[in-house]
Amino acid sequence: MNLSRLQHLLQNAASRRILVVGDVMLDEFVWGRVSRISPEAPVPVVEVQAESSYPGGAANVARNLRPFCAGVLLCGAVGEDSFATTLRGLLFEEGIETAALVASPQIPTIVKTRIIARQQQLVRVDREKNRASIAGMTSRAGELVAELISSVDGVILEDYGKGFLCQTLKDSVCRLAKEHGKFLTADPNPCNPLDWSGVDLLKPNRSEAFAMAGRIDPGAADDPLRDAPLLDVGLLLLQKWDLNGVLVTLGEYGMILFKKGSPPYHTPTKAREVFDVSGAGDTAIALYTLAVCAGATPHEAAEISNHASGVVVAKLGTATLVPDELVMSFQQNGK
After folding, report:
1. Which residue from 63, 131, 191, 222 puts its CA 20 to 30 A from 163's CA?
2. What is the domain-level CATH number for residue 195?
């Protein structure tokens, strides 16, 4: 893809609106340094130097979209607590629409707190409760999606396996997307075994793809196009749910796109440095979906998604990118 074509797609993307539905959370980071071991237990003592918070999970997908398009709408579940207030404030600052967040006093807002020293994560503390047990949340989310669907160009289902995205809600969103002619993608979680029929594209990583196919991963081959187990899994997932596309992210090996009736398409990684892979899958699904909604072909969308992921893994923390960084990646790396 040449730069002229990329700029054309970015210009189209700037007028698009995307709805993200899934498990939202708050990512907290405690940054510090370690200079001694605790006298109380054989663990490092972290001297805190800074703290930061970012929208996480499905909210990070929304955050990745915002610099590239006209509007991002987010549907998910939060508690009625201080963490939800913080999360709403962060989303407001980034211009992400939160009217479709469903709040309940019965659940805490999901929070993941990472303690980092010398660019290494020492420990993560999770606060969460499964959303599947909260009555009425699914139906309310479905009602909100029905109200918003006509105002968006595409929908992303982001499943972190926390219970919000159940089969009923997934099927409801699929039906609405089909009725209104909206492009629908999904980032699945094998711990939540949903029937993904009806989505336009599924985006698992390699381990998720093998898990959903019920296969054991024997390890990656140097050339994904000669990786017979991977190729079998991609075709199996296409057939299992009669999908139009499956995009498998492969870490250091880039991505491979499986399309019904077409040979697999591999795009090697564009990452020059890798500091933190957390959130790279969020970037991949966000930019692929937006690119298709902006008029990109599936191969073009995979290239854009791959370049974007290569940019964010070179950053520490829950990172995103802006259009200029994407353009620069194409300038430096080519197609």
Report:
1. 63
2. 3.40.1190.20
| 12 within a domain of the structure (yes/no) | yes
Angle at CA 126, nearest 5°, toward 120 and 132?
140
Kindly state the tokens that stand for 27.
């990512």
Give the pair of three-digit tokens for residue 171. 């099927």
- Residue appearing with tokens 């160009």: 153
For residue 44, tell me if it sits in a domain.
no
Instruction: Tell me how far apart the alpha carbons of residues 305 and 287 are, in angstroms, rounded to a whole number.
Output: 5
Structure letter (DSSP) for residue 205: B
**Residue 321, C-beta contacts closer than 8 angstroms, at least 6 positions apart:** 64, 67, 283, 308, 311, 312
| pLDDT tens-digit map of 82-113 | 999 999 999 999 999 999 999 988 889 999 99
Q: How far apart are CA 317 and CA 279, in angstroms?
A: 8
Catalytic positions are 282
Helices (DSSP H) in 2-57: which residue ranges?
Answer: 3-13
pTM (two decimals): 0.93
pLDDT one-digit tens code per residue, 256-300 = 999 988 999 999 987 666 554 556 889 999 999 999 999 999 999
At 79, list the tokens: 């508690």
Q: The domain containing residue 264 runs over which residues?
A: 3-20+59-103+128-333
Q: Quick check: 231 and 266 in contact, CB under 8 A?
A: no
Secondary structure letter of residue 106 according to DSSP: T
- Read off the tokens for 123: 């420990």
| 117 inside domain | no
Q: Kindly give the pairing relationship between strand 24-37 and strand 44-57.
A: antiparallel
